[in-house]
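Issue: ligand-bound run for flavin-adenine dinucleotide - logging full I/O for the record.

Environment: standard queue, default settings, no custom constraints.

Inputs:
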Amino acid sequence: MSILSKPDRNYFLNVDRNPILHGILKKTFYEQFCAGETDAETRATIRELKDMGFRGVIMTYAKETVFDHRTNTQQGLGIAALEAEKNNDTAHPLVAHCANIEAWRKGTAETVEQLDDGDYLAVKLTGAGPTVTDAFSKGELPPPQMLEALDQICARCKERNVRILVDAESHHFLSGILRVTLDLMRKYNRDGYALIYNTYQAYLKSTPETIAKHMTVAQQEGFTFGLKLVRGAYIASDERSLIHDTKDDTDAAYNGIAQGALKQTLGKFGVETTFPSVNLFLASHNKASVVDAHNLHQQRIAAGLPTVPVRFAQLHGMSDEVSFSLLQLKGGDGSPEVYKCSTWGTMGECLAYLLRRAIENRDAVLRTSDEYNALKAEFGRRLKSAFFLS
Ligand SMILES: Cc1cc2nc3c(=O)[nH]c(=O)nc-3n(C[C@H](O)[C@H](O)[C@H](O)COP(=O)(O)OP(=O)(O)OC[C@H]3O[C@@H](n4cnc5c(N)ncnc54)[C@H](O)[C@@H]3O)c2cc1C
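Outputs:
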């Protein structure tokens, strides 16, 4: 997967041009983790996920750029995008019209139309190409064309009641992504709920401080803070020293932030100063993290204690046992609200995403023992009931 993700692929290693390689990957990796290469395939997958009982879907258009800290290179832009960049953006800081931003806008706008009322759009801002990632590398806002595209997408989502989760990406681009998303929250989260959520990676040592800064802005300026919490997916390419030293530290950070938000005591908020309006989105495959968070939320509601609205999500093709365990806890009030998050795009566009899923599923081997035990118990139950009936 890592070799196939490199931009200078020859015909045989180009997944969009070599039909045999494309066919093999489509039936194995792609169909496990992705929604579709076309609008029709994607809509069919969305229907299937909703029929399984999920509250809704989160859909992403796959185009993105990953920065590899070890080699100091960017990966993930499709060949077409690189060609467009060469043809159009030779002096790119000054370009008036960037073909990559337009391609990203078009793909993202198409994604919005695939979604229904109450669904979520997830966006990877680096998919808009080098003019945008160059600005993000410097912690700057992207060019006006990108800001206009984002504004147009947010307005359309608001009209269609589709909320937006802005993904956290490689650390190299993160300060720019956080900055542009905070501006969007400031503008659009003013109706008592979060239309826009920023994603915070609990594995980064700096995350509690980042959250505290953004909560201060939300409190002072009176908008709802959209807090999507993940552990973080770029451990293989980001600078290791920025990430907690052990998995236990990342787990403690994740659970501390999630439970602090649900108890409305996070850092100085809820202790020295009032707690701002927060909407929480917990994206995780860790069963203990999500079940504990749901139980805490229910206990606080039952005891009449303050808490914040919370929703849960797992990735399409991963940890169905966790998703269905959450769905089985569903009470009369419809909570927990569980979503499945999928990605659509051509095979080439989805490669960087598929590579992260391949790496992550090495961790998931640990979790498969839970799924194996659940399947074994279910098999035993069915066997017993078959004997009982006969
Ligand atoms: C709906 C959804 C949306 C997501 N969106 C994003 C996103 O926008 N950006 C993003 O970066 N990720 C995103 N992720 C992926 C997420 O960050 C995790 O990589 C993934 O879910 C695995 O973590 P987990 O919470 O499921 O738990 P687990 O499987 O219990 O934890 C695995 C994670 O722990 C951390 N970890 C593992 N080993 C170590 C170690 N030695 N030291 C320190 N930490 C370690 C890593 O973050 C690893 O991914 C998303 C996940 C979901 C479900």
